[in-house]
Each structure stands twice: as structure tokens, then as C-alpha cells.
Amino acid sequence: MKAKGRFGVIVPEINSPLDHEFIEGAFAQAQALGYDIIVYTGVFNSLRELRYDTYISGLENIYTLICTQKLDGIIFAAERFHTQEVIDKIKGYIAQTDTPCLVLGGECARAKSMEADEYDSMYRITRHMTDDHGFRKLHCLAGIPGHKSSEERLRGFKDACKDSGVSITESNISYGYFWKEVPEKLGMDIASGKIDRPDAVVCCNDVMAVSLIESLAENGIRVPKDIKVTGFDGGWDSLMCQTSITTVSGRDKQFGADAVCRLYAMAAGTVPKQELFSQTIRYGRSCGCCKDTPLESHLVDMILRHREKRTFIATDFIHHMSDASTVTELGERIDDVGHIFGGVDWLDICLCDDWQGDSSNPDNYRQYGYSDEMYMLLSKRFGENNEAHYKFHTADILPALSVPHEPHLIIMTSLHCSGQIYGYAAAGYTDSRRVSVDEYHVSWCDSVSNGIKALQKKLYYQHFRRQIEKLSEKDPVTGMLNRRGFMVNAPELLNRYKNENRKSYLLMMTYYPDKVGSINIEAALGNMIMDICAHRLCAKMSSSIYAVIVPAYDEQGIINTSENLVAAIESGLRERFGDVRLPEFVTSVSVLDSVEISDIERTVYETVQAISDKKEASKSNYTDYKEQIYRLRRNIISDPQKNWGVDKMARDMGISRSHLQRLYKQMFSVSVKDDVITARIKRAMQLLAHTNMRVQEIAEMCGYNNDNHFMRQFKEKTGLTAAQYRKEHGKKEVA
User: Fold this and answer.
1) Whose CA is closest to 675, among 703, 698, 653?
2) How far is residue 691's CA from residue 698's CA, in Å, rounded to a whole number?
3) Which of 81, 352, 484, 487 has the fewest CB atoms nearer than 10 Å to its CB?
4) Which of these, 123, 81, 130, 141, lies nearest to 106 by C-alpha position?
5) What are phi and psi of 568, to 5 degrees?
6) How far apart, in whole angstroms, are the C-alpha atoms of residue 593 and residue 602?
């Protein structure tokens, strides 16, 4: 069957057997329906908030592709993510597309929700203990109270006990995370007599079951001779335990297939019947059954792959990929070491069209999202490679998907290094059991990214050497005049201002710290000063000191010019680098009342000394409030719909309302209130352009309780009504 469409699947990682089963079930059902599955995975499912970790941010950047790539539907496996912040980010990306979306184990605006079937199998495994084994004293090792999955499994246990005439009270239930601490304690309590020994313990997952068996054994109670135990999930833990565990298997495989059927119904309008997978009880000795249920073939394959030692590959691929001198050579070198992916049918390396960065300004590079066009660096096929070294639209995902092909499973992972986004790697499979996003895969992708970074540096140095030969009076980093060039050009300009009866002032500016995180703003700052002061003489006097000759009729004029210059630079830096912590700027002004080079040199020297002293004094008075205000502004931009009251913000920071407003205006050249309005209007513009939501719904999502208030502020900020903006930039509003 030829593929006729494509569904996107968002998962944090493909690591455990349950992850593999979910992907296997989803792809098998998609194949049967004639659809590709595009899996977007950040590889690492963090338990902590790591939004400031550039490596983790680079991995998770892959999720931004769902905003731009053409998909017939999206499955967001929210229940598999550990961090709420990442879940909220992905929900934001989903809100920017009108593609049908199904959220698993969670909720999202404009998306349908779906939960896995947890009840029936827990009911059946409990009835196995009461009906087949005749046990009357049961204990349930449940999960977290209030958690949907836990509650459904517990409900299945309770109903099974009720229907079989077994009396259950809260004393027969232990709650806790699906982990080891609670089972260990339960084992000790049973052994000590603190809890009456039950005939059997029905556990809500296999990790609990294994831990309970180990705890009981350490306390002299044998399973299944003295007490029986069952699990749920059918993962690695149930297979690796010394006592084979009776458990429920197939939950995730069924869930993946059911989700694809549900998404197909949303996208195509017809409801297919899912007949490929169902949950089953896999019998083991832990419940007292005489013999084990034979393992399914796919589990045998997974165990063998888990236990096999990966053959050492005598390839120094890190050095090999970092030693290329041209982009063509880099593609060849990546191809040379692509053989480590034994089960892959396709391997495409796709780079953003701006992957080289800006040769004249190496600090200007992509830190978020992907370009509208991608560059196909390598299209590896195990037999004969496809054509490479051309551009294609990012919306198309991969060129190979636009020609007739059998349904494929495509694993999309990020290519990034040191905060720069280079592109993505796409590994295509026709057999989902061969998917392996393991340490080999990650290390290989990181090596590709390092190879790209090494080539980028070589190309920059080549450009730098060419330029340095041309520049004798210019700074090689910024392209501005250097100190010598300033001295050569200053007299002529000073004479002109003198003839116009205007005073000449030497305005110097510096900043601290020299870097903003990993961003070195030196080159960016030079370009901005040259753009802003296009008709004036400006120069870089030292590593972080810049000078501009400014004409003015009075002292107030030069003060205004100084303030406006700093404000314009701060605005430009925010526009260029996003919502990062800006450096502190320091200025100093001197009068240039002579056209003699010796006098100009003396004034320059004295002003450099003055601004250096002023910089050190300012650094010593630096306040920690700055970081708090930067964090506040990031939160406003991320969640503009919240109720951002200035009084509450000030109280949370422990400062006065007026102090907060003064600092905020000083740092960002805009008031807190105006910033909130701007963030809300930007969010509204995005939703108007990319969704079919009603204006009233958009107003509410952007924090407006009053539609008229929203429409008035939107018109003030954009010059257009919401309806006019949608007509010009996006979809027409639904009647």
C-alpha cells in the first residue's frame, strides 16, 4: 500500500519497552490505514525544569516543527512527559496550527482528549485471583490518589472484588508513586504483622510488583509459596524478575493503535475498527499459576536486543566528521559513518538554510525553531543514496515523502550544538521493532552537530582572513572604524560641524558583563551602532568601548542623544536575541573643541579612562533585582493571559510598586503595563493568523474578560481591527 497521508506523534523519548510498544501499535495501525508516522522526540524526558540548559533546549526544539510541517493529524502523548513546562510549550505549538490533534492523558485547547483503557484489564486480573485461585483476602498496591490512570486501575480492582463478593476497605489499599518506596514499606509491614497478611497483593504496575517481591523475600516471605503477587504494564521489570510475574501486557500497544484510529476518524471523517491489538493477561508463577505464558515474539526480540552487547565499531566518527573542509565533504564523511544504523531504511540530514550563521557576525545564529527552507545535506539509502545538496520547504518534512512510497515510520531528532540550532536528523523505518533511539543514536547526532560547528568555524575563519587583509583602519570583529581610523577621519567631520556653528561631543559607551549567557554581543553591538549612527562617525576604541561623534547645540541635546542611543540598542538586542538578560550600559560624554589630532587623542584617552572608572563603579552597585525583572518579563511573554497586576508583581519581589515600574522602564524602555498589552496583542495576532478560533475565544485566551476592551486595544496597537487583521494575514473568522 502506498502512503496517502501522514500523522505526527509527539513523545519525549523511545527508551523503555512501553515506549516501543506504543510506537509499534501506532505505526502498525497507521500502516494498515496507509499513513506515515512522523515521530518528534526530544530524546531526554527530564524530571526537572531545565529550560536554561541549552543542550536540553536544543533537543526539545524539535517539537517546534509541528507548527510548520504539513501533517494530517497530531497525537500528543502528554501522559508520557514528566515536566509540565515542556507540556505547556507543546500545547502552545499545537495552538498555532489548525491540524486535528489528539492529546493522550491530558487536555489542550481545541484538541480532543483520550485516555488508555486501564479498567478492564485490572478488573480481569483481579477476578483471576478471586475466581480462578479462590483468594478472599486481597490487598491493592495502588498509585497516586487523583491520578487518572491510578484511579481507573483502582476502580477496576474494587469493582472486581465487589462483583466476586470480596469485602474491601481502605485498609486493604496502599497508595504511592509507581516506584519502589511504598512496596518496600508494604513488604516490611506484612512481614512484621503490622498489616494482616493477605492471600495476594494486586499491584497497579510491574515496578511495584518487583519491589514488593524483593521486600517480602528480604523479610522471609516467599512468593508465590507464602503470598501471591500480580503486576500491570508488562514492561521490562516483569520480564527480568527472578519470579515470573503475572501481569497485564499490551496496554501501550493497544493505546497507540486506538489513538491512530481515533485521529483518523477526526481527520478523515470515518471511524476504522481497531482489531490489531488488545490487552491480555500474561500468566506467571507469582500468582500461583503452574506455568508461564510463552512470551510474545516481539518481547523475545526486545530482550535479546537489550542483552546483546553492541559490537565495537572501529570508527572515530567524532574526529572524522569534524575534519571536513567543505559542506560536500561533510556530507560524504557523515555518509561514511552512517552504517551504525543497521535497521534504518532512510537517513536524511536536513540543515536550516542559515546553518552557516552570519560570517560577518558569528554571534548571530539561530537559537529557536527552524527556517522555512531546509538544506538536504545527506539522503542516505542503504543501497544507493538519493540526490542531496539542494533546498526544500520545511513544510514538506522530507522530499522522500512527496513521492510514492510505502508507509514509513520517521524518527525526527534535533541537530544542535552550543545553543545553535542546525537542523534535524530523520531516520526512516518500515519495521518499528528496529527503532533504537539509544546512546549510539544520540552520540552520532551530537557528532554530526559538532562536525557542522567545526565546518562553520572554518568557513568563518576563511572569511575573517579575507576581510582582515582589506582592513587597516577597521575593527576585524565589528567592521567599524578602529581607533586609528577614528583619528584619521575625525578632523574633517569636526571642521564641518564647526562651520555649521554646532558643538561636537565625543559620546563613549561600554557595557557589562561582556557576555550574556553564551551570547557574545560584541559584533551585534557594533552593527547596531553603525546602523543607528549611520550619518555620524563611530568607532570601536577597545574590546568593549565604542565612540560616536555627535553634533549638538547644547548639553541637553547630547544627553537626549545618549539616552536614545542606549534605548535603541537595547531594543535591537531584544529583537535579535529574544528575551535574554541584557547587559548594563554605561556612557560618558566629552567636548571636542579642537580639530588637532593631538588634542583629539588626549580627549579620547581621558574619556576612555573616565568611562572605565564609571563602569567599575556601576558594576559594584549592581542589584539582584535585575535578574528577577528579567524572569518576570519572560513569564509575561510566555503567559500573557494571566492577571498581571503591578501591585502583586511588586509584592512578590518585595519592592514597592514605584520601584518596580522605575526599574522595568529603565531596563526595557517600556512600562510593565504596556509590555503586558503588547504580549497579549502578539499572542492574539498569532491566533488570528493561524487558527479559526472566534475573536471572543481569542480575547479570552489572551487574558481579556471584555471583548470590547480587547478589540479597542488591538486596533490601537496594530491599526487594524481583529477581522481586518485576519483577512490580511490568515483565515477568515468562522461565522
Assistant:
1) 703
2) 10
3) 484
4) 81
5) -65, -40
6) 12
Distance of CA 471 to the CA centre of its chain: 41
Which triple of cell numbers denotes residue 247?
501481569
**Helix or strand holding residue 651 (H, E):** helix 646-653
Alpha-carbon gap, residue 59 to 42, rounded angstroms: 5
Pairing relation of β-strands 546-552 and 503-512? antiparallel
| Residue found by looking up cell 531516520 in the block | 427
Q: What is the DSSP letter of 719?
A: S
Question: In the structure grid, which three cell numbers stand for residue 111, read together?
Answer: 484538541
pTM, two decimal places: 0.63
pLDDT computed for residue 580 by the predictor:
67
Q: Mapped to the 3 state alphabet, what secondary structure does 216-274 carry?
A: HHHCCCCCCCCCEEECCCCCHHHHHCCCCCEEEECHHHHHHHHHHHHHHHHHHCCCCCC
Strands 280-282 and 247-249: antiparallel
Length of the chain: 735
Are 29 and 257 spatial neighbours (Cβ–Cβ below 8 Å)? yes
Query: 556-595: per-residue pLDDT in tens?
Result: 778 778 878 888 888 888 788 776 667 778 888 899 989 8
In whole angstroms, what is the distance from residue 282 CA to residue 734 CA?
51
Listed residue (596, 600, 598, 619) closest to 608, CA to CA: 600
* Residue of 418, 387, 421 whose CA lies nearest to 520: 418
| Of 503, 546, 344, residue with least CA distance to 430 | 344
Write the pLDDT tens digit of every residue in 602-647: 999 999 998 988 887 766 544 456 667 877 887 888 888 998 989 8
Q: What residues contact residue 216 under an 8 Å CB cut-off, 6+ apart?
A: 187, 190, 191, 222, 223, 226, 227, 229
**Cis ω before 513 (30° cut-off from 0):** yes
How does pLDDT run across 606-617, given as a tens digit for each residue? 999 989 888 877
Contacts (Cβ under 8 Å, ≥6 apart) of 391 = 353, 373, 374, 375, 376
Is residue 224 a contact partner of residue 288, using CB atoms and an 8 Å limit?
yes
The dihedral formed by the CA atoms of 43, 49, 55 and 59, expressed in degrees to the nearest 10: 30
* Separation CA 267–CA 30 (nearest Å): 13
Residue 600 has, within 13 A of its CA and on its CB side, a CA count of 24
Distance in angstroms (rounded) separating the CA atoms of residues 210 and 229: 9
For 181-209, write each residue's pLDDT tens digit. 889 999 999 999 999 999 999 999 888 99
The pairing of beta strand 346-352 with beta strand 420-429:
antiparallel
**C-alpha span between 365 and 383 (Å, rounded):** 36
H/E element, 460: helix 439-470
Instruction: Show contacts of 464-471: CB within 8 Å, 24+ apart.
Output: 464/359, 467/360
Rg for the chain, CA atoms, rounded: 32
How many CA within 13 A on the CB side of residue 472?
1
Q: Which residue has the cell 560584541?
A: 522
Of 91, 108, 121, 126, the C-alpha closest to 200 is: 126
Residues 6+ apart with CB under 8 A from 300: none
Angstrom distance (rounded) from CA 667 to CA 581 = 10
HEC string for 585-638 = EEEEEEECCCCCHHHHHHHHHHHHHHHHHHHHHHHHCCCCHHHHHHHHHHHHHH
Conformation bin of residue 398: beta by default, left when phi > 0, alpha when psi is -120 to 50 = beta
Q: Output the CA–CA distances (angstroms, integers) from residue 734 to 104, 694, 697, 713, 715, in the order listed.
A: 27, 6, 11, 22, 20
pLDDT at site 730: 74
Per-residue pLDDT tens digits for 313-365: 545 677 888 888 899 999 999 988 877 777 889 999 999 999 998 877 777 88
